[in-house]
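Risk register update: the risk that structure generation would not scale has been downgraded. Supporting records follow, first protein first.
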Amino acid sequence: MPEIALSGQTDVGLKRANNEDAFMVRSDLNFCLVADGMGGAAAGELASRYFAESCLKLFSKARADSISGLLLLVQKAFQVANKCILNHVEQEPRHKGMGCTAELMAFCDEGFVLGHVGDSRTYRFRNGEFTQLTHDHSLVQNMVDQGMISSEEARYHSHRNVILRAVGIEENLSLDLIKGKATPGDIYLLCSDGLTDMVDDDRIKTALSSAASLPEKADACISLAKQAGGTDNITIVLARVL
């Protein structure tokens, strides 16, 4: 099993009264996650927490030693969390519309598996190259894909917060599963859109390029988002392959 160093931080930002994000880093279970709640106040916080708790419960009981096994485990984690949120809404109709975007990354000897839903993101920093591994499930990303607007216009579009997929909204969850090799020296960044809406990729890359520790790199990214306005909760998880 590759040795993975993990670090996570979350910040309420400068404009929100509460933090609807959640993260989890578990080196002992070889996984990490970021979830960004939606649905307002208590509902959003609950959705992201349900996602994190569902993943922890599953990974505490089940292990996967191969990519194929890890694919099934990550997929099941999303399914369990999705059902958990839907069951809550059934019992608490006032929370209808609650859900979360989510990134879940798990490692084994063969590499990693990443599960992705929504507009939270995962990036890889490898040999000086900073690459976005995920594709936003959002209205503005669809508009970019169709050539209607540019990536830069999408950053400031009035509908940039319209999400097309989220955990806990529909019974049949459509999930992106990404797999790859984990190379020593790789740094993986999982983050909520509170970072990427505020800070462009070049400035994030510069923060990750520094000689600082993982917690210091995460803190630098959060500081950049707050300096740019901090309009949303900001959550960051960093995973370095040792």
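Supporting record for the second protein:
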Amino acid sequence: MRERLDCAVLSTRSSHGWASQWLGAHAGGKLQVHSFDVIDDSQPAEAAGALASAAMRLRRYDVCLLPVVEHNLGWARTALAAAKGALYTPVLALVLDLKAAALNDLYSLGLSDFVRGPVCLEELRVRVERLLNERRRSAPAAAGAPPPLLGETGGRYADMPNPDDIGATDAVCAHILDYTGLELEAFAAAVAARCSNSTESFRSAKSKVVERFERAYITAALGRHSGNIAMAARSAQKHRRAFWALMRKHEIDAAPFRPGTAPCEPSPRGQ
């Protein structure tokens, strides 16, 4: 079970009032529901591509929650259709008074799951957890999904993504927080096995693997917490100053991860 689930609520003006009641921390902080965007669905042309245009920003969340009521059903259909092939983050609908035919239509357009209102937050947490587990098991067949790792697929080191394939390794780094320690250990073992067959020294090979891991993990943690160093350090279970020292070591700036701010030098103070 994940220690924390971060959910982004992408609502429209017609559904925002109903959806805003779930914002905040729940289940002892294990379920975090964040307000993401409120779309003006009175402007159909602009609203249609809202989900697709938010695809990159949604990557920092575990799931996108889409409140769907009768008044914004048409928008939900259009937005899901426009976002097909562009989204990595799964979409879970929070629905109110929708018929089965409408739900089947949303499923055909890419919806991952739904919870009926009145929403039970404990049920929501369980469904999000189950959705992520199912997604991980089916990741090899999913377009744009992270590569399969040992422990999820029951494979051997030979089944791991080729460490010499820069694209596959970049995919592991991009989704590093989605993997367990055992999975990352298996990938590191595959990398080490390949390095042992080269002329590179143990020290040099180890240094490169550790450096890549640290950079990927710090970057992913900052992305998930919108550039908040204190929250990122807490989720990594590291002291804030130690976390900041790693940022400085790898020349990672927190500012680009903060909405609406320009890059600047990271500082351990002011968080």
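The chain has twelve helices and six strands. On this basis the risk owner (M.S.) recommends closing the item.
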